[in-house]
User: Which sequence fits this backbone?
């Protein structure tokens, strides 16, 4: 640990992830805050949507200094894809659930369902003091990952997962992609071309976070493998699926039958032997 910095925030917001650029730590102060009554009532996740808590993005200089805050329209910032400095702007790419998001999932939101998470981008204009929000892909998707050698620098490729079981848990029904709502697939995004490829899985074969692993000696950003835990309901256990990142829609290179289930919703990392 190089430094500890106290950042005052109101209402104890649920901060699940953050982002790093070469200059800043990016903090999402979200309108989902701790709720003592929900905790006393035994809520599994005692955080509730709070319309009285304004949404802000904070930029804490990594070199030290004061956090700069920017007001934006509320979303639930879920997971960081990547972030980077670009001239007088900071670019943040992430997955987010639309407002209002019900952190405890099914039953906590009442009759109005929350929408599915999408892949979005903020461009924070440091000179103008404003944030421009845009949507990179409105398919339901989560667990965004890149080639990690590019964390905090500009990337071209991104990998995400659409997991029907998760959308069911959050009753995430927005009608935008009715055919894709309850299917499972991995997505490879090409940010340069604005294009994407899908690798689909049959039926209820729930997919988890896609982890990119570079091939030994790789020079191209996407020269490597995409690993994901995919639950096979017919076997009742989980497979580790290995895709070629450059042949994303093709047959998996390998399917490792694991002896047990890997619970849905967990993150993954690849740690190579030294
Ligand atoms: Fe997470």
Assistant:
């Amino acid at each position: 640990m190089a430094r500890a910095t106290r950042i005052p925030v109101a209402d104890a917001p649920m901060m699940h992830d953050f982002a790093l650029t070469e200059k800043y730590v990016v903090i999402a102060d979200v309108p989902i805050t701790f709720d003592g009554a929900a905790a006393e009532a035994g809520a599994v996740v005692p955080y509730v949507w709070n319309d009285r808590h304004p949404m802000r993005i904070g930029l804490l200089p990594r070199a030290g200094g004061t956090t700069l805050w920017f007001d934006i329209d509320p979303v639930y910032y879920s997971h960081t894809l990547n972030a980077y400095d670009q001239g007088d702007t900071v670019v943040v790419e992430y997955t987010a659930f639309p407002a209002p998001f019900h952190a405890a999932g099914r039953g906590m939101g009442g009759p109005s369902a929350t929408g599915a998470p999408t892949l979005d981008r903020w461009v924070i204009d440091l000179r103008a003091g404003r944030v421009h929000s845009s949507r990179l892909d409105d398919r339901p998707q989560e667990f965004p990952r890149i080639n990690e050698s590019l964390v905090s620098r500009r990337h071209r490729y991104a990998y995400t997962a659409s997991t029907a079981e998760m959308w069911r848990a959050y009753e995430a029904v927005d009608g935008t992609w009715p055919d894709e709502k309850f299917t499972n697939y991995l997505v490879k995004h090409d940010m340069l071309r604005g294009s994407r490829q899908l690798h689909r899985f049959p039926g209820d074969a729930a997919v988890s976070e896609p982890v990119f692993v570079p091939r030994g000696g790789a020079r191209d950003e996407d020269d490597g493998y995409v690993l994901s835990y995919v639950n096979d309901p017919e076997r009742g256990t989980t497979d580790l699926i290995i895709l070629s990142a450059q042949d994303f829609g093709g047959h998996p290179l390998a399917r490792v039958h694991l002896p047990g289930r890997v619970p849905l919703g967990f993150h993954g990392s690849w740690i190579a032997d030294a």
